[in-house]
Specification:
globular, mainly alpha, Helix Hairpins
Length: about 90
């Protein structure tokens, strides 16, 4: 679970304009943070299969959003992947 401060920091970092809270770029940023947190959890709790399934679903959802950004707004896609240190395809 992301704290309110952490969430607002991520939104501020990835938003496209002042009141942007739901664009694909912001959602990718929030998903990336949740994926990182869950990955740390799974390193400590390797037998937690239910969380592993949730992690895989989030990874697929983030991939779909990144593909959408790449096809529609390539400059935003490049900025987000650079800021979040994600691999570019």
């Amino acid at each position: 679970m992301l704290s309110k401060e952490k969430k607002s920091k991520i939104i501020g970092k990835t938003s496209l304009h002042a009141k942007d809270t739901g664009s694909a770029a912001v959602q990718v940023g929030l998903l990336t943070e949740r994926i990182n947190n869950l990955s740390d959890h799974l390193k400590k709790n390797s037998k937690d299969k239910h969380s592993r399934r949730g992690l895989l679903k989030m990874v697929v959802q983030r991939k779909k959003m990144l593909d959408y950004l790449k096809n529609t707004q390539e400059e935003v896609y490049l900025k987000i992947t650079k800021d979040l240190k994600l691999k570019q395809k």
